[in-house]
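Show me any protein, keeping tokens residue-aligned.
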Amino acid sequence: MIKHVVLLRFKTDASKQSIEEFVAEVSELKAKIDVVQHFDHGAAATINTGKFDYGVVAEFASAEDYSRYIEHPAHLALAGKMGGLIDDAASLQFDC
């Protein structure tokens, strides 16, 4: 199994509406891309102060399925919209 973790920091001037639209699109990814086995996402909890505002965790049966996800038109469309909204991002994939 491959786990894909993404951490995002929104631009300080990103509008609440733009962020809400982004979150709505993220919420639709699992339904649009059949290789996603498990998908969680959400805003940073205020338990600890951190560098990032939002996180996504997706699980895939294989590295091939992860590659299909990354190249899927729904994922590419969402990634293309992030430029004006995201100030910083980090991602990591690992076997589990």
User: Anything to note?
Assistant: The CA atoms of residues 28 and 37 lie 14 Å apart. The chain is about 35% helix and 35% strand. The helical segments are 16-32, 63-70, 73-81.
